């Protein structure tokens, strides 16, 4: 599933959530359309097709294919293919799926091969024959197939379980979307910041689900109405699972401090950055709770780093290549929760196999003076980083707002860079934010559990 343009960012949680569900989970009307299209195609599918090298689930739109995968799975016929190296399942709608025998044997769900209480495989890889063939294939009923292997071991597979694991390119794309929610809504200075009451997400599963879906898709969301005291982020951490402990503690206080051990603990302007690239695995999500706000200055600034990466890649591919291939040294040394001295190498832009940005690691304050690259590559790197930084600061991309006491800003620390305008220094504390981190593993775990509960999906 690809990203959408920044112009499609919706107002508030409800609209973001509705669009998310339209793209990901077809409603009743969509299912009726899918069913109708199946009926129209049925006459063309009556003829049996050969089971080819890949699964043949028909070429459908993502929404239609998701509808197909969610429909009741019923098997018409099952047979072995390729000398027993594969098993072909023909579904009631006439489409076919091909499953490699080695995968079927490895995925056997019997008590000897699988531990249901842990949801874990018992079969050891050394006991798996990668050249295994199916000795006998049978259709127990329209909802289950049975396979006997050369050693007489028997495996049974539920039709619905198999259908969800269809190996067609389209079906795998749907599974990836369901498991990892890779879609992004890009935005710039026109962001309409999604908002939802803090207490709603604390006690209402549907609200919490909408919040986490928006956080994953848009990269940022504002929770409103929290109490103006320390400890609300601890409660939020318990809601999703637990917070990430770092060298600055489970939570940390952003306010002007004497002998500050972090540039955030001053009244100075903070440039756009992601937090903690000095760690091998930087925190995925950041929470900032406004407890007290200064009257003058202190505005927050955010920018969609993935949107800026797309712009840079189009505008200057060479600069993008430099920032996505050059290992930059980061360091953080000091004392807080405990004493610490961390050093790490990160690329400014981490990419996937397609060259798309998946994580940004950029903090100019903790970028080390050690720079482990050849001297002739230094200036081109700085030129590329300067161009990237200029795009981050451009009025086209950055969004500026001022947090109010009780606001909790939640955002994707791998995607959204944040900064702060400076504010006057005073003898007393005039601005106080409490901060915390969570890992994406924890957030995605809670999102998946809430989705099952809210949408009643398996």
Structure description:
The protein has 13 helices and 22 strands. By secondary structure, the chain is an alpha+beta fold. The strands form 7 sheets. The chain has a 6-stranded mixed β-sheet with strand order 9-10-20-13-22-11. Helix 1 packs across helix 8 and helix 11 crosses helix 12.
Kindly report the spatial arrangement of strands forming the biggest sheet.
Answer: 9-10-20-13-22-11
Q: Give a quick account of the main beta sheet: strands, pairing sense, barrel closure.
A: 6 strands, mixed
The number of helical runs is 13
Tell me the fraction of residues in β-strands, as a range.
15-25%
Q: What would you call the shape?
A: elongated
The overall pLDDT average reads 88
Please give the number of β-strands.
22
Radius of gyration based on Cα positions: 26 Å
Q: What structural category arises from helix and sheet content? A: alpha+beta
Topology:
Elements: H1 12-24, H2 28-45, H3 62-70, E1 75-81, E2 86-91, E3 96-100, H4 101-106, E4 114-115, E5 120-121, E6 136-141, E7 144-148, E8 154-158, H5 159-164, H6 169-180, E9 195-197, H7 198-203, H8 205-217, E10 220-224, H9 232-240, E11 251-254, E12 270-273, E13 285-292, E14 300-304, H10 305-315, H11 317-323, E15 327-335, E16 339-347, E17 349-351, E18 357-360, H12 378-393, E19 398-401, E20 408-412, E21 416-420, E22 432-438, H13 440-455
Parallel strand pairs: 9-10
Antiparallel strand pairs: 1-2, 2-3, 4-5, 6-7, 7-8, 10-20, 11-22, 12-21, 13-20, 13-22, 14-19, 14-21, 15-16, 17-18
Helix pairs in contact: 1-8, 2-3, 3-6, 8-13, 10-11, 10-12, 11-12
């Amino acid at each position: 599933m690809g990203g959408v343009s920044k112009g499609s960012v919706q107002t508030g949680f409800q609209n973001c959530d509705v669009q998310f569900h339209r793209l990901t989970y077809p409603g009743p009307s969509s299912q009726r359309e899918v069913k109708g299209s199946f009926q129209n195609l049925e006459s063309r599918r009556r003829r049996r097709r050969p089971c080819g090298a890949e699964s043949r689930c028909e070429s459908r739109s993502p929404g239609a294919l998701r509808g197909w995968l969610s429909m009741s799975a019923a098997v018409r016929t099952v047979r072995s293919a390729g000398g027993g190296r594969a098993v072909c399942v023909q579904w009631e709608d006439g489409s076919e799926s091909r499953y490699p025998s080695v995968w079927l044997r490895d995925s056997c769900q019997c008590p000897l091969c699988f531990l249901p209480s842990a949801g874990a495989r018992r079969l050891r890889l050394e006991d798996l024959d990668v050249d295994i063939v199916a000795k006998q294939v049978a259709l127990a009923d329209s909802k289950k197939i049975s396979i006997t292997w050369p050693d007489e071991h028997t495996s049974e597979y539920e039709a619905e379980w198999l259908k969800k694991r269809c190996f067609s390119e389209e079906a795998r794309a749907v599974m990836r979307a369901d498991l990892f929610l890779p879609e992004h809504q890009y935005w710039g200075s026109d962001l309409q910041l999604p908002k939802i009451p803090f207490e709603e997400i604390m006690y209402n599963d549907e609200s919490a689900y909408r919040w986490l879906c928006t956080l994953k898709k848009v990269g940022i969301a504002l929770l409103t109405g929290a109490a103006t005291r320390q400890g609300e982020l601890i409660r939020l951490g318990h809601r999703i699972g637990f917070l990430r402990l770092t060298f600055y503690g489970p939570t940390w206080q952003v306010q002007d401090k004497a002998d500050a051990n972090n540039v955030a603990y001053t009244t100075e302007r903070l440039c756009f950055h992601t937090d903690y690239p000095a760690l091998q695995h930087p925190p995925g999500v950041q929470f900032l709770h406004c407890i007290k706000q200064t009257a003058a200055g202190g505005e927050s600034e955010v920018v969609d780093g993935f949107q800026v990466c797309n712009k840079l890649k189009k505008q200057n591919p060479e600069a993008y290549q430099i920032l996505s291939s050059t290992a930059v040294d980061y360091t953080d040394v000091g004392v807080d929760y405990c004493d610490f001295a961390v050093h790490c190498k990160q690329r400014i832009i981490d990419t996937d196999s397609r060259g798309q940005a998946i994580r940004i690691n950029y903090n100019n304050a903790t970028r080390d003076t050690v720079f482990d690259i050849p001297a002739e590559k230094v200036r081109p790197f700085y030129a590329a980083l300067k161009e990237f930084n200029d795009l981050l600061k451009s009025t086209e991309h950055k969004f500026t707002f001022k947090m109010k006491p009780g606001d909790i800003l939640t955002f994707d620390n791998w995607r959204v860079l944040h900064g702060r305008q400076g504010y006057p220094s005073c003898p007393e504390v005039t601005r106080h934010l409490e901060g915390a981190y969570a890992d994406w593993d924890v957030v995605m775990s809670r999102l998946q559990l809430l989705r099952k509960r809210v949408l009643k999906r398996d």
